[in-house]
Fold this sequence. Notes:
The structure is a single chain. The longest helix has 14 residues, at about 90-100. The mean pLDDT is about 90. The protein is globular. The chain is built from 5 helices and 5 strands; from the N terminus they run E-H-E-E-H-E-H-H-E-H. It is about 35% helix and about 25% strand. Strands 1, 2, 3, 4 and 5 form a 5-stranded mixed sheet that branches. The chain is of the alpha/beta class.
Amino acid sequence: MTLNQRVIYYYQTFCGLSDIFSSSYMPTHIHVSSIHFGPGYIHLNNAPPDSDTFADVWRELQQASNMGIKIILMIGGAGGAYQEMFSDYTFYYFLLKKTLLDYPFIEGVDLDIEEEVSLDDVKMLI
């Protein structure tokens, strides 16, 4: 029997991926954390995803993707991101979709829901 093992690296502090690239055992997935929504904006941690702050992050994630590592974007966590998103879904969904299109090596999303939200809203997002 073959086991389908996954090694997931949650990447939030953005300290660089050079140690990952030089490791003999690389992760199968990198989950980039975390997208939040606030009044009128989308943020990756504390800045817009297209901020120059993340130029090296996106470059290294593209490199990781080229090496066969799946790149996943985490949405949410603590902080009320989903309630904000669902308060004006059309507006925030557009920002999220734009981010996903801007970085086509992102292969999926990780919904980290740590707040009360409607199951119907989550289904709409999925």
